[in-house]
Amino acid sequence: MKNRSIKGIFISIATLFALSSSDAKACAVTDAVGAKIVVSACYSCMFPLSVGGIQVVQGPIPDIGGIVGSPICACPFPPPIYVRVGIPVSFFEPSRVVEVVSDPYCFPTFGIPSPATGTGMLAGVKNDGSSSSHTVMQTHYMIFPLYSILEIATDLACVEVTGVDIASITEVDPLWNSDALGAYIAPEALLFGNPLSNLACIADSVTSQFFTPNDALFWCMGSWGNAYPMTGHKPTNDSFVQDTAAMAAKTLYKLHRELILWGSWGQAGLCGYYPAPIWRKSAYRLQIIDPIPHFLATTIGQSGMLWDWGKNPPMMFDNFGFLLFKKRDCCVL
Fold first, then answer.
1. What average pLDDT score do residues 164-191 get?
2. C-alpha closest to that of 105 among 140, 141, 136, 135
3. Which terminus has fewer CB within 10 Å in the chain: N or C?
4. pTM > 0.90
5. What is the DSSP string of 285-329?
6. SS3 at position 129
7. Looking at residue 112, what DSSP letter applies?
8. DSSP H helical segments within the chain, as ranges?
9. Model confidence over 300-327: pLDDT tens digits?
């Protein structure tokens, strides 16, 4: 019943915009939601795993955010118990999918072709002219709890147990499609989104190559550029695939600012989610899944030269999907 409901959502979106369709072939789709994500996901990227303040399993990517050092934790509980005592557990959970598309309303990782045209104000573009060098893309933020779907570790209180759903699509978000409107939720863009502030991003760019983004430089995305403005527009880099990863990262920061995404790391995250309008870059990992998967996730800001080669083959029409890993600190009874 749940799968029928999810399928109905996508069919409704396709039907809503069907009248404006003139070239649905521009949106190349895959069978990612059926098998590709399950087969290609980097399951080792959930590590390191820490229990009771001790790292018990190492992973391919270090956790520079640190772990809760206490061997026990306590959280509020309804009467008559009042307090629940447990053990802190820390890992990275693959629970979301972020699509970055050139074709509006295209859902490539869910096998739904775009009903809209490949042109217009919502369509993605990469301009490489001498007078302008700009990338414009749309993004979709999907709830996709991989472990829950596969029924892996569902008895662990930290693992999210929900269904598949669409949490955000930027085609209907005016704050994403206009830099002027986007300034309402990020007025500090005037302070950080300028060439002078970008000089500080050099340090973040260097450390990001070694999976260690600098969380103090929250306006920087390493080699991916500046996180401001929090919109679907950014200066173009040499790598288009890297630009799409930057769009996915900007989506995360924007959702944090809108309090759609909440923090789940550190001491404050042991007992539940909490508001985090300033994101923590090291709490996220992105693994490209569609159209060509990479065997390892990457931290925000790592140069595309290390992971994006061969990920944008001809006739795939510049539509991408990323599996998102998010840091979880929780108190397990």
1. 92
2. 140
3. N
4. no
5. EEEEEESS--SS-EETT--GGGT-TT-S-TTSTT-EEEEEEEEEE
6. coil
7. B
8. 2-16, 37-40, 146-150, 174-177, 179-182, 189-192, 195-208, 240-257
9. 999 999 999 888 887 666 889 999 999 9
| Strand-pair partners of 96 | 143, 324
Q: What's the token pair of residue 217?
A: 């430089």
Mean pLDDT on 267-287:
94
pLDDT tens per residue, range 130-140: 445 667 899 99
Residue with tokens 């990612």: 32
**What distances in angstroms separate CA 300 from CA 219, 222, 244, one per listed residue?**
12, 7, 12
Cα dihedral 94→210→218→103 (10° resolution) = -50
Determine which helix (DSSP H) or strand (DSSP E) holds 274, and give its type and residue range: strand 274-275
Phi-psi category of residue 317: left, alpha or beta, with phi > 0 → left and psi -120 to 50 → alpha: left
> Minimal CA–CA distance to 270: which of 146, 143, 84, 145?
84
DSSP annotation of 35 reads I
Domain segments of the chain as ranges = 2-332
Q: Which residue in the block uniquely carries the two structure tokens 């309090």? A: 259
Determine the pLDDT at residue 57. 93
| Angstrom distances, CA of residue 54 to CA of 68, 88, 235, 283, 332 | 9, 10, 42, 18, 14
CA dist 99 and 199 (Å) reads: 30
